[in-house]
Amino acid sequence: MSVYYQRRTLAEDKKSKKVISDVLAIIEKAKELKIETERIPYTELLKLSYKNQEAYLYHRTPPYTTATAHICCRNKTITRNLLIRAGLSVPKGYLLKDSDAREYQLEVFNKLKKPLVVKAIDGSEAIAVTTNIKTQKQYLAALEESFAYDRSSEKRALVERMFDGKEYRILVDRNKMVSIIERLSANVLGDGKHNIKELIDLKNQDSKRGDKKEDKPLFKIEVDQKIKDFLAKKKRSLNSVPRKKEQIFLRPDSSLNISLGGDTIDVTDQVHPSVKKIALKAIQAIPGLTWAGIDFLTKDIYSAQKSDDYAILELNSSPRLIWQAEPYAGKKQAVLESFLINIFPNLKV
Predict the structure, then answer these.
(1) How many CB atoms lie within 10 A of CB 239?
(2) Domain count within the chain
């Protein structure tokens, strides 16, 4: 029988490397703010107590977020329709089923401007997501992957036109925007001395980076064939020596960027006010959603956002906190404090 949540001390949890860093960070911040915490044995629940108030967390899901909101966020088609209903921009796309005639599936492919993105309806953390699709062969393979991942009997997938813009994650509650980070795909910065492989090794020494078992704020860059192929297209190799301050990207831009060794750059204080208005409108479009991570693409986050300038990919009802509480670069925002105030509005920080 697992004793995963029988451990009581932070020291034991950290040593075990089995408990997600978000939960540990919440516990540490809660104690700073005089909030009592209790791990419930044999569950994944955390009890918080503050001035005769009690609340229970399941991972990063606030206690006041409803089941309806969670279902809406898990189903990308529902999210899209609610955002469209609220007058917000989403990538043009279609819902396909495995049972649809192949002729119709190919009609969708031919109708949408390339490149495309194919994703599972209820996927998370970029699982069963294929980006930058340009050929029919890539498209059909991506559909099969997403259909295979779908847990429902219908076997569905979402096909979208790929939006050309920079990628951001916005943390927001129903009243305010908390934090915005730019998400960069895996990259290294040249120093004029080391080759790309050496620069990767040096970057992986950062204490914020770990492998997937360690669950650090950021992931190490793992060199694989996709990195080698991507560099080759740019007429580079792992042995190439970049110029000083030359930024070399190792993978294409995509929602996989953080999990594959990407960077998080805080830009909260620099974005245009219209971005904040859009973020609030987005969370308020989902009934019962009290805290969210919004995947946001835009051509220029520092300028007023027009409908053709941005696209909302999805909303996450249980977003990672540590990415934005401990960004790779930029100002640290009061992410954990805001999360706990969302639970205890009378909390004094």
Answers:
(1) 10
(2) 3
